[in-house]
Amino acid sequence: MEQQRTETFFLVDKELCIGCGTCVTSCPMKILILEDDICAITDPSRCLECRTCMRDCSEKAIDIQEGPPGDKVPGTRVGSIGDSEGPVINFTPILDTLQDLIRDLHPVQAFTYQETDVRALNDFKLEGEKCFTRLYQAPKLEKIGVSSVNFLGAMRTDVMVITPGPEYDIPYYIMDWCESEDHIFYICDLMPSDDPGRNMDYLEHYLYEPLEDLYLEYNDIPGLSSSVFHWVRAIHSPYLLVGSVGKEPKENVDRLFACAVDYLKAWLNLYQKAQPQDIHSPRMQAIQERRRSIRTLYTENDPGAGALDKFLGKDLAHLQLTIIEP
């Protein structure tokens, strides 16, 4: 599968940049430097357009734009473009364990979704790095999306999202493990299908009982914090675990790994007990409306969309997100 990459334009306002180096530290690809006390990029071709540097810049001095190859943006500051080689990273095999745990669901790989052929993403390479995005179907579920995308050997994003079927009110399982040289950006949750503020019984039995003890066990991992995205906070559960966790000491990674496994086991217990509901009831109609809103929010706001657009092209990126978003 060949990709037509867009070109990244990295702009820094010299009047605003104070040379603090926060952007250099936060960049997952390690391609930012301070040049004459001003932020600069060493290799725009490796930029994921994740905009982490923009969000972390206290002075709002950074802007990132994109365009087709050959475009020019006046005032672009690109630093020195080179063939920067990143470190060899032994990525954590989180998906191997999670996929073993869902075998009892008897998932069957699907090659179409919503009448769209998804085989182009089944196995592919980015700059020689192996990647895959696979769609599965199973009883009680709309879909299981499993994806591993390796960005130039410098960062790998492993995702598992399990979406309940229309007749079931159980939560989604969501796990996003984005690993680079020195840290892991992590999301794990049982995202509620029903509004837990409206339905206290749902909050009690589908969230509090399975997750309270687990949340208390893991929420003190250094680096976990409230999501920077207000729309994420609005739709996820009170037991959402999210943040950027350093890979040293190794205990941090081990605890993140155990958290992803334990949250999945909690979800599997709910799955085993799940019974079909009357899809035409007012409650299930409200759940379907909530699910449509969740899908819209993710489609319009997913921060990973920029990287996928750049490296896969907009059509395949859209297909990718269709599979792995709730």
Short description:
Helices cover 33% and strands 25% of the residues. The protein has helices spanning 22-26, 52-56, 94-101, 200-218, 230-235, 250-273, 282-301, 305-312, 314-324; strands at 7-12, 32-35, 38-41, 62-67, 108-110, 112-113, 116-117, 124-126, 129-137, 141-151, 155-164, 172-179, 183-191, 241-246.
Low-confidence stretches: 69-84
Structurally, how many domains make up the residues?
2
Biggest sheet features: 8 strands, antiparallel
- CA-atom Rg in angstroms: 20 Å
Number of H- or I-type helical stretches: 9
Structural class: alpha+beta
By CATH, the topology of the largest domain is oxygen-dependent coproporphyrinogen oxidase
Tell me, rounded to a whole number, the average pLDDT. 89
> What is the name of the CATH class of the largest domain?
Alpha Beta
How would you portray this structure in words?
The protein is α+β, with helices and mostly antiparallel strands and 326 residues long. The chain folds into two domains: 7-67, Alpha-Beta Plaits (2-Layer Sandwich), CATH 3.30.70; 94-324, oxygen-dependent coproporphyrinogen oxidase, CATH 3.40.1500. Helices cover 33% and strands 25% of the residues. It contains nine helices and 14 strands. The protein has helices at residues 22-26, 52-56, 94-101, 200-218, 230-235, 250-273, 282-301, 305-312, 314-324, and strands at 7-12, 32-35, 38-41, 62-67, 108-110, 112-113, 116-117, 124-126, 129-137, 141-151, 155-164, 172-179, 183-191, 241-246. Strands 5, 8, 9, 10, 11, 12, 13 and 14 form an eight-stranded antiparallel β-sheet that branches. Strands 1-4 form a two-stranded antiparallel sheet. It has a two-stranded antiparallel sheet with strand order 2-3. A hairpin with a 3-residue loop joins strand 9 (129-137) and strand 10. Helix 3 (94-101) packs parallel to helix 6 (250-273). The longest helix has 24 residues, at 250-273. Residues 69-84 have low confidence and may be disordered.
